[in-house]
Amino acid sequence: MQSRVEPLEEGKEPQVTNRTIQSKALPLRLLRVLVPFLALCVAFSAISIYTIRYFGINSAMTAVKSTFEPCYEEAESLQQWIRPPLNLMHTMTDAELLWRASFVPRIKKYPFQRVPKIAFMFLTKGPLPLAPLWERFLKGHQGLYSVYVHSLPSFEPNFPPSSVFYRKQIPSQISEWGRMSMCDAEKRLLANALLDVSNERYSFMGVFDDPGPFGRGRYNDNMAPEINVTQWRKGSQWFEVNRKLAISIVEDTKFYPKFEQFCRPACYVDEHYFPTMLTIQVGNLLANRSITWVDWSRGGPHPATFGRADITEEFFKRILGGHNCTYNDRSSSICFLFGRKFAPSALEPLLRLSPKVLGF
Question: What angle, 0 to 180 degrees and rounded to 10, lies between the N-to-C axes of helices 273-282 and 243-250?
Answer without folding.
Answer: 110
